[in-house]
Specification:
With 639 residues, the chain is α+β, with helices and mostly antiparallel strands. Helix content is 29%, strand content 31%. It contains 14 helices and 31 strands. The protein has an eight-stranded antiparallel β-sheet with strand order 11-10-16-7-8-15-12-13. The chain has a six-stranded mixed β-sheet with strand order 2-3-1-4-5-6, sandwiched between helices. Strands 21, 22, 23, 24, 25 and 26 form a six-stranded antiparallel β-sheet that branches. Its EC number is 3.6.5.n1.
Length: 639
């Protein structure tokens, strides 16, 4: 009887699954017909770009609701922020695409929306996204006005010859000042105030007019349907069952499921197995045409990389190896497994995550204390922090992080005598690899041009902060009566760690900051080591400027004293440069009263117990393993 019931249950389950598959097939067929019906002249590819926290994700939610992609409601907030870290921190980390259908003047349009991050540490996502766009919604908070990253994204859009739709958001708030913000746009970017749209993404005011402006102002993609198929990869990620999946912008021709294609980087032939639109959930299609942004997959062994091109076999393009856009890493840090038995798991997690985040560079590294690991390059400290958080949340991989450092350049004396260096000028990403000072002719430090937009009442505080960080002022300009734009040439090492947090604190959160590379310049640098009870802690070795040597030494040792938990033995913390101790802190040991059990008798009994305790502590000190908390390596560098 039980067997018969199980068979009936299995039969019903199979029938239910068949019905689900049939309905999925019908949805796929209808979506395919919709795609084929859309003419290329009615395709619009656009991004939303803005400073952080100016309402990009909220506007994306309203656009999804207006086009019927999602149902209105509080449960559907931040739909495109799909990562757990994005929802926890309230920031956009990954640029996400959504293909939307919209009817305008009785004609069907396909709108490919890309929601981009606003923080400077994720600017690489914005750079890649605009490659697939013909225009951008240039979003500005009507309360805050123009801010530093606003200037950066406007410059990026101009460099790529994109149509800009200036839009003021949050006009419903009491502090909103649309007229003043329009005058800022006029003075900084020469934008006609009459072309600026006003919306409230939260309440939905003016969003429909903005969507219609996207259709009327942004031109269709300049793609050729008659040429052979060619698509540029703008994003990649790893799927557990399907392998490497890619987001591609089709530049020419058309593509169908089952078609044989090749990557320009390796020219091996692959069969296209997966083709879908992101709405924002996957919607499988059978065919895609030039001008579209689609998800493609060639199976577990057919993955590409960001910047690569997917070609048809008939393509007449010359077979040269494609390379991803150059990314200039600002921060390097070592990542090691908490236990070497977890090395393989962490290795797989880093590879999968680096595939999804092309701005990360990965190189094998090793440490005497932590074993085998990796040296990773990031665009900033927030980028590093988000990467390690995603490792833990998405892959359950615990890692120990070493002290972050910026890359330096050195000119080596007699480079042939130093085997690991092939040329006279060497980039140093790990302070431990810095050669002996006698072999170095000159040190070079990376600099950036920092742009700060701040209220006029904080000009003095901002100027003091930048000069204290070894900054050189450049000419400033007025944004309006209340705001001014200041620029400084700053050492990168003084910027990436905590400059932004300190700036926000000094200006009550009103100032904004952005920076761009200014190259390497000659500087006076030394390597500073940290000794714990006389043992070198490789992970805390840093390169510092001589003018800030004593300050950095005192700060590091004091911070370590606060962060390292007390042990059963006394701990000496020293900052040493070329054998000279510049700062020392002592962490007292826990003290146990071994004489508490004595209730009388001769004093020699008390002395005997204290002597035994002293000998035990001496022995323990010689073999003690001082445990440093894993967060110490990042937190210790924050002022």
């Amino acid at each position: 009887m039980v067997r018969l019931l199980n068979k009936i249950w299995n039969f019903n389950s199979c029938a239910y699954n068949i019905r689900i598959l049939k309905s999925s097939f019908r949805r796929c067929s209808s979506s395919t017909n919709d795609v084929e019906a859309v003419d290329m002249s009615r395709i619009r590819n656009f991004s939303i770009v803005a400073h952080v926290d100016h309402g990009k994700s909220t506007l994306a939610d309203r656009l999804l609701e207006l086009t019927g992609a999602i149902k209105p409601g509080n449960e559907n907030s931040q739909v495109l922020d799909q990562l757990q870290v994005e929802r926890e921190r309230g920031i956009t980390v990954k640029a996400v695409t959504a293909s939307l259908n919209y009817k305008y003047k009785n004609e069907d349009y396909l709108l490919n929306l890309i929601d981009t991050p606003g923080h400077v540490d994720f600017s690489n996502e914005v750079v890649r996204s605009v490659k697939a766009c013909q225009g951008v919604i240039f979003l500005v908070d009507a309360n805050e006005g123009v801010q530093a990253q606003t200037v950066a994204v406007h410059s990026l859009a101009k460099r790529n010859n994109l149509i800009i739709i200036p839009t003021l958001n949050k006009v419903d708030l009491p502090r909103a000042d649309p007229e003043n913000t329009k005058s800022q746009l006029k003075s900084l970017f020469n934008i006609d105030p009459d072309t600026v749209l006003s919306i409230s993404a939260k309440k939905g005011w003016g969003v429909q007019e903005l969507l219609e402006a996207v259709i009327t102002r942004i031109p269709p993609p300049k793609a050729d349907l008659n040429k052979h198929f060619k698509a540029t990869i703008i994003d990649t990620w790893h799927d557990k069952y399907r392998g490497v999946m890619c987001l591609a912008y089709i530049e020419s021709g058309s593509i169908e499921v089952g078609q044989t294609v090749k990557w320009r980087s390796d020219l091996k032939q692959h069969t296209l197995k997966y083709l879908a639109l992101l709405r924002p959930n996957e919607e499988p299609i059978e065919k895609a045409v030039a001008g579209q942004v689609v998800m493609v997959g060639c199976g577990p062994k057919g993955g590409g990389s960001v910047g690569d091109e997917l070609l048809s076999l008939e393509s007449a393009e010359e077979t040269k190896v494609a390379s991803a856009p150059t990314v200039k890493h600002m921060v390097y840090a070592g990542i090691f497994p908490s236990d070497q038995s977890q090395h393989t798991q962490l290795s797989d997690a880093i590879k999968k995550l680096a595939l999804n985040d092309s701005a990360v560079s990965v190189n094998v590294d090793s440490s005497p204390a932590l074993g085998q690991g990796w040296r990773l390059g990031f665009l900033g400290l927030l980028h590093l922090d988000v990467f390690t958080q995603r490792l833990l949340q998405e892959h359950k991989a615990e890692a120990i992080l070493t002290a972050p450092s910026v890359p330096y350049k050195i000119k080596v004396k007699g480079a042939k005598a130093i085997k690991q260096y092939k040329g006279e000028e060497v980039i140093i990403t790990n302070p431990l690899l810095l050669p002996d000072p006698h072999n170095i002719v000159e040190y070079y430090e990376p600099y950036v041009i920092g742009t700060i937009i701040t209220p006029v009442e904080y000009i003095g505080a901002v100027n003091t902060l930048c000069v204290d960080r070894r900054g050189t002022p450049l000419p400033s300009s007025s944004v309006d009566e209340k705001m001014t734009m200041m620029q400084f040439i700053l050492p990168l090492s003084e910027v990436v760690i905590d400059f932004h947090d300190t700036l926000k604190s000094l200006t009550s959160g009103f100032a904004s900051f952005d920076y761009q590379d200014y190259g390497f310049h000659s500087s006076s640098l030394v390597r500073m080591d940290i000794l714990i009870n006389g043992a070198l802690v490789d992970e805390l070795t840093t390169i510092v400027h001589t003018s800030r040597l004593e300050y950095s030494a005192r700060r590091l040792t004091t911070k370590l004293k606060e962060m390292i938990p007390r042990q059963m033995v006394q701990i000496a913390i020293q900052a040493v440069v070329s054998g000279k101790v510049y700062s020392r802190e002592t962490l007292k040991a826990y003290r146990k009263d071994v004489t508490a059990k004595l209730y009388g008798g001769d004093v020699t009994r008390r002395k005997k117990l204290l002597k035994q305790q002293a000998e035990g502590k001496k022995k323990m000190r010689s073999v003690a393993n001082i445990k440093i908390p894993r967060n110490t390596f990042v937190d210790v560098l924050k002022r």
